[in-house]
Automatic annotation (TrEMBL):
This is RpiR family transcriptional regulator. Keywords: DNA-binding, Transcription, Transcription regulation. The keyword DNA-binding applies. GO terms for molecular function: carbohydrate derivative binding; DNA binding; DNA-binding transcription factor activity. GO terms for biological process: carbohydrate derivative metabolic process. Coiled coil: none annotated. Residues 107-249 form the SIS domain. Residues 1-73 form the HTH rpiR-type domain. It holds the Pfam family HTH_6.
Length: 250
């Protein structure tokens, strides 16, 4: 809450003070204690008790910490670089290489032999996983997205079906521990694993039967990974069409 990393238990009147400060933080850092008391219709003593709950010795100490908090939030703002088309152009060029096409063929061979495809990803990869499941379902087989791998156990699937499942794991870093645990759970039951990652040198890629890396730069905004999912979308689409064409040509 405000500059504290943890929640503070507040009474109703203190919640009103908190809401006023949060909505008028740029003004509060220049107020006197009597001004804030008047604006929130409480006594200065109530303001001091409120400040102590925020681990401050008094109102002046509270304003200093609040001012520092505002400064830190302002400094978090950063410009996002304009889109650079070259990494995507380079990726598309690499898709014509024999090594890339071989990976697509190997993944297609697995998908032609399974009855159920599960897609798993977290964050933006989870959104693309849902798209992949819709795409595969519409073109050649039943596919389902796993949006919450921590709470979607697969222990009740029959042994026969386990061998007819393929998990498509989407991960930029290839190091997400929740996905690693999920893959381990399926590998024990002899399910096939296809992964699409930003690098072939990662834990998830090494655990997979087939890994399709796309090698584009990782982009972060503050604490969020905003690496483009354009290569992943392309890979899913070309893979779905490859499986469809092979299935109907045979």
């Amino acid at each position: 809450m405000l500059f504290l990393p943890h929640k503070v238990e507040l009474k109703n009147v203190e919640i009103d003070i908190y809401n006023y400060i949060a909505a008028n933080v740029d003004k509060v850092i220049y107020m006197r204690i009597r001004d804030l008391a008047s604006a929130t219709h409480v006594s200065t003593t109530t303001i001091l008790r409120f400040c102590k709950k925020f681990e401050c010795e008094g109102f002046t100490d509270f304003k200093l910490k609040l001012q520092q908090y505002v400064k830190e939030q302002t400094e978090k703002h950063q410009d996002i670089q304009r889109v650079d088309e070259m990494p995507y152009i380079d990726f598309l060029r690499r898709t014509t290489n024999d090594s890339f096409q071989q990976k697509i063929d190997e993944a297609a061979e697995i998908l032609l032999e399974v009855d159920l495809v599960l897609f798993v990803g977290i964050g933006s990869s989870g959104i693309i996983a849902a798209y992949g499941a819709m795409l595969f379902s519409s073109m050649f087989t039943l596919a389902l997205p796993i949006t919450d791998p921590l709470n979607t156990p697969l222990t009740n699937i029959s042994r026969e079906l386990n061998k007819r499942i393929c998990l498509v794991s989407l991960s930029v870093s290839g190091e997400n521990q929740d996905l690693i645990d999920y893959i381990n759970q399926l590998k024990i039951h002899q399910a096939k694993i296809i992964s699409i990652t930003n690098s072939s040198n990662s834990t998830i890629s090494n655990m997979s039967d087939v890994n399709i890396p796309y090698y584009t730069g990782t982009e972060m905004f503050q604490d969020t990974n905003i690496t483009s999912q354009l290569p992943v979308t392309y890979i899913l689409e070309i893979l779905a069409k490859r499986v469809y064409n092979q299935k109907h040509s045979s």
